[in-house]
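Re: that chain you flagged

S.,

Sorry for the slow reply, it's been a week of failed gels. I finally had a moment to sit down with the sequence you sent. For the record, here it is as I used it:
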Amino acid sequence: MVSAHTASQEELKLAKVPVAWRDQCSALLIPLNVCRRKNFYLPWECENERHGYEKCQYDDMMRRMRKMSKLKAQEAEELVE
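Prediction finished late last night. Pasting the structure tokens below so you have them in one place:
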């Protein structure tokens, strides 16, 4: 599933994003890391980018949790039948 927040593998490779961070929000991580490097990782400089990335991570986690709940409910329903 490719979303609007997913960068291509070529973009991730050029930005040197570690494999562990290549997820649904990877397109938001690239400008955040650019901003961090440009501003020497000062926490107050890249707040908008960081909050956007964290919101995307949260939404992705909630989406996965809802999907897992549905799967568990389906499995429980199948066991009852």
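What I noticed first: The CA atoms of residues 11 and 54 lie 20 Å apart.

Talk soon,
D.
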